[in-house]
Every structure is written in structure tokens, then in C-alpha cells.
Amino acid sequence: MPPPGSRPGGARGGGPRGRISSGDVEAQRAENAEAPKIPHLLRRITELFTPHKAALVTTVVLVLVGAALSVIPPLLTQRAFDDGLFPIGPDGEATGPNLPVLGTVVAAMILVFVVSALLGVWQTWLTATIGNKVMGALRVRLFTHLQAMELSFFTRTKTGVIQSRLQNDVGGVASVLTNTVSSVLGNTVTVLAAFVAMLLLNWQLTIIALMLMPFMVIAQRRVGQVRARIAGKTQESLSEMTAITQETLSVSGILLSKSFTRQRSEIDRYADENQNQIRLQVRQQMTGQWFFAMVSIFMSSIPAIVYLVSGWLIGGGGADITAGTIVAFTTVQARLLFPLMGLMRVALDLQTSSALFARIFEYLDLKPAITDVPSARDVASGPALGRVEFDDVTFRYPDADGDSRPTLDGVSFTIEPGQYAAFVGPSGAGKTTVSYLVPRLYEASGGAVRFAGDDVRELRQESLISHIGIVSQETYLFHASIAENLRYAKPDATDAELEAAARAANIRETIASFPEGYDTVVGERGYRLSGGEKQRIAIARVLLKDPAVLVLDEATSALDTISERVVQQALDDASRGRTTIAIAHRLSTVVAADVIFVIVGGRVVEQGTHADLITAGGVYASLYRQQEERPVVDA
């Protein structure tokens, strides 16, 4: 394992949780400024849409057409009033409603509404499809890339940070992928078209209507900042409630709270945060209500002001304003305010989305430290299959200090096919590191690790690991049935093969005693099973894989004496006919090994059979006597 006290490095935090509403404007800008600098970011974002060019062009056209159509009804309203309802004859007198004209105008208005609605549905489907496909492809691409990263990346990076990149950052760009582009285009065209329509109707009224707009925009910005700050606190409160839930309602958390009778304190902690959440939600809902009241008054007052100004202009003879012009003008004006407000938020939304994209691309640009060389080949079958060799191997963990003592220093040994080899020694000596280097989970810093006669760096990783089975001390089972957990090693395994693997792992009778047999759900991390049962299922899973080399990393150290005896028998059966590398803390489990390597301070100081090492009276003999006199307490 990595040296104690080493700190995670290399990966940054998860970043913002979404759009502007996750915090104050200035705080959001500061957070965006801390995003990693990615070369050609805009080009790389654009390339994400390449597979959807046709749909994207169609969306842009629909947005432009839809925005342009939105200003046609007010102009038709003018015609309905002036030419349909209150037409004026050649003599300047009202002639009464012109029903044919009115019918034509009304039909045209209904047609525009129908076409706009259909275009809106089509546009929504296209933007949702494009955005979610791009987001889904990006999420899978990132997940795939993370699967290729070396083990050291995950030991130095918090799981929460990785989850944040996959969920929060990728989810956060959904808005720019689905809404922002269409919002920018639609609002811009709507504002410009409405402004042009207002000018065409009457330029004097346009000036009057726009005079108060700047004040409303400034007020909207201020209220938006206040609401954003409250929303940020609300998100923090939600995060805290989520953390409490994860900590206390997981299997481990429930066991801990019950064992210390802390359920009441956990309930109180959750209730307090819930009360804080309620208070923040109410504040968030109430903030800006005066502003919206002002907007309502303003929006209601402008038509009245327009009527007053129109009367003054008509009475003064300074303008030719008709009733249709007034109605059409007030209708167009009502469409202008909120698109303007929407455009104000676009710049920060785009900046925030760019920061999220930068964080995503930062991970995508990470280069796996362990990769296949172009000439990599598969593991060759033959008599050498199962041979493991270390040739003057030196290893230092990637995050270790450069001047620190290497974890392994000049280690050399050979394990022949079919041998049972054990590695023993004090904690921190480097035993587990040996098990990491064989399947190339880590790369040797110096020397060579060979498998079946070939340097592991010249073999395809997938081929190498397919010949190696690992049973560790910390057994991981999925929250699924026993059969599904077993088939993780071989998805197409038959029921008969499951039976054979379970029998070889000495767990068949136990599974048969369960009411649901192989369909028994093991629970989160296998908590519904005992330690020995979980370990034997893990052994059966490895046996289903049928590897040439079996690595046992202290596979029984966490078990009680009875469970250890049962599991050890299963391990002994599993090791027959295959090379076995056992990392052991309890020397009693490896006394029958063909060869025992004693590692101290990263070096092999002794090797031989149990009898030979006892006779030699060295480190192994001393460790064995200590464990015989006093049962070992695992570190």
C-alpha cells in the first residue's frame, strides 16, 4: 500500500454543482477562474457536437424561425383592429367590421400559433436529444477513460472527487448542451424582432416604453445576486443532509450508531439541518417578491402609460396612431422585458459551463501511467505458463518522496509453475507490493517482472490479468445475488460451472442451505453473509475464472479461527494445480508452502521451506516463535 501519511495529489476538487444558482455571482466567477486551463477548449467543445451537425443546424433554424414568428401575432393584431374590427372608409368614417378581412387575419394568427407550437415541440425534442446524447457520450467517455487509469490514481484521488466529475460536472454542462444555445439565439432574435416591430409601429412609443427598462434590469440583477447567495447556502445545506444520510444510513453507519446508541443524536443532527433547509427554502422563495411585484406593476403600467402618451400624441396631432397600433405595440412590448433579462445571465452561464467542460477535459487528458506498448502480445501458453520471476526489482510508490527508501529494493526470486510460494515478514515490509507488481497494477521502478518468461511490460494487460486471480483480505461483493456475483468472473458460466466452483471453494452446502440458494441477495458489500462465507464466495469467483496464477493477499487474516480453518481448506484446494502466491501474516497458514520468502525492509532476506527456515534460526524462526507464544494481532 502507499506509504502512511502520503497525501492524495494530482486531481482537483469537484467544482461547481450547476449553473449560477449554486452561489453568488462574484463567488461563481472566482470559482470559474480557478478552473484548469485547457488549450483549444472551445474547439474541443464544438467537436462534441460533430456527430449531430444536421440536427444542430435544424435546431438553429427552428429557433430563428420560432423567434421571428413570435412577433407576427402583434402585427396581425394591428391589422385585426384597423382593417377588420374598426376599418375606416375613404371618407374617414368608420364602416363597421370587415368580416372577410377579420376572418383572414384571425385564421393567419391561429396558423402562426399552431406552427409556432409545432416548431417549439420539434425544437425541444431536438435540443433534448442532442444535449442528452452529447452528455451521455461524454459521461461514458470519461468513465471509460477512468477505467484505464492505473491503481495509483485511485489511491491518491478521493472517490467523491471522481464521482463529482462524472455526475456534477457532466450534469452541470447539460444546460449549455440543451438550453443555453437555443436561449441565446431565441432571446436575441426575439428582442431584435420586437424592437424592430415597435419601431415600425411607432418610434415615439418605443422611446417611452424603453425608458424604464434599464432600471428594471438593474433591479433584476441585484435580486438575482441575493437569491443566488441564498441558493448557494441552500445547496450547502442539501449537501450536508446528503452527507448525513450517506454516513448514517449505510450499513457501516447504522452498525456504528447502534453500537454506540447514537441514533437519537443522529436524528437530532438531521432534524436540525432539515430545519435549516426549510428556513433557507422559505427565504429563497420570498427573496425578490417585492421585485416581482414591481415588475408586475411596471408591466401593467406601461400599457396605461402608452395609452396616455398615445392620447397626448393623437390630441396634439403629432402622430398618426390608430387603435390597432396601440394594441399591437403593447403586445410587442410585453414580449421584450424577460428576453432581455435572460440574455443578461447568458454570459455567466457560458463561463460556468466552460469551467465545467475544462474540469471534464482535465480528466480526459490524464495519461494512464501503465499502458500497452504498440508491440504488446498475449501471454503464450506452454510449460512456462505460471512462472513468475522478479529480476532485481526496485519499486517506489508514485507519491513517495524521491529520497525515501524504496518499498522494494533489488528483489529477485523465481516461482516455478505449480509452486505454492509464500511471502512473509513484518508489516510494511513490501509483501503486498509484490502482489501488485505481478498483475502490473503498478509498474516496477527498476529491474524486470516476468510472467511465463516474458517481461510484463511487453504483454497486453488484458491478457496478463486474465491469467491471474486475486483474493484479497477485503472481499468486495456487489449488492446482487450470489449467482450474479459469481458470474462477474465469467458472465456466460452455466449453473453447473457455478456448482463446481462453489464445491471447490467449500461453499456449495452453505449456499444450498439458503432458502433462495444462488438467488440469495448478499446485501451491500455482502453484509448479509459472514466473513468466512464472503471469502469463500470470492474464492469460488476466482476459481470460475480458472487462472494460472492465484494471488492470496492475507485472505484469512480478518477471520476467526473456525472460519479461517474452513477458508484455508478452500484455499488449499483452489491452489492445487496452479501457481500460488500467498501474502501471509499468520505463518501457520503457510507452513506447507513449497517455498517461503521472508521480506524485511523491501529486501528478501531469507527463503526456503518452513523446516529449512526454522532450522536456520533467522528472522522467520523468530517470527514463528513469537506467534506460537502469543497469537498474532493483525495490524
Task: Write a structural description.
With 635 residues, the protein is an alpha/beta fold. Helices cover 59% and strands 9% of the residues. Strands 6-7-8-3-9-10 form a six-stranded mixed beta sheet, with helices on both faces. A four-stranded antiparallel beta sheet has the order 2-1-4-5, covered by helices on one side. Strand 7, helix 22 and strand 8 (579-583) form a beta-alpha-beta unit. Helix 5 (99-147) runs antiparallel to helix 7, helix 8 runs antiparallel to helix 15 (337-364) and helix 10 packs across helix 11. Keywords: ATP-binding, Cell inner membrane, Cell membrane, Membrane, Nucleotide-binding, Transmembrane, Transmembrane helix, Transport. This is Multidrug ABC transporter ATP-binding protein.
Q: Give the count of helical stretches.
A: 24
Termini separation (Å)? 13 Å
By secondary-structure content and strand pairing, the structural class works out as: alpha/beta
Largest beta sheet, briefly?
6 strands, mixed
| Assembly level | single chain
Mean of the pLDDT scores?
Answer: 78
Q: Using DSSP, what is the number of strands?
A: 10
Helix content: 55-70%
The strand line-up of the biggest sheet is 6-7-8-3-9-10
Q: What low-confidence regions span 5 or more consecutive residues with pLDDT below 50? A: 1-24, 631-635
What Rg do the Cα atoms give?
A: 36 Å
Strand content: 5-15%
Coarse shape: elongated
Keywords: ATP-binding, Cell inner membrane, Cell membrane, Membrane, Nucleotide-binding, Transmembrane, Transmembrane helix, Transport
Region (Disordered): 1-32
Membrane topology: Multi-pass membrane protein
Domain ABC transporter: 388-626
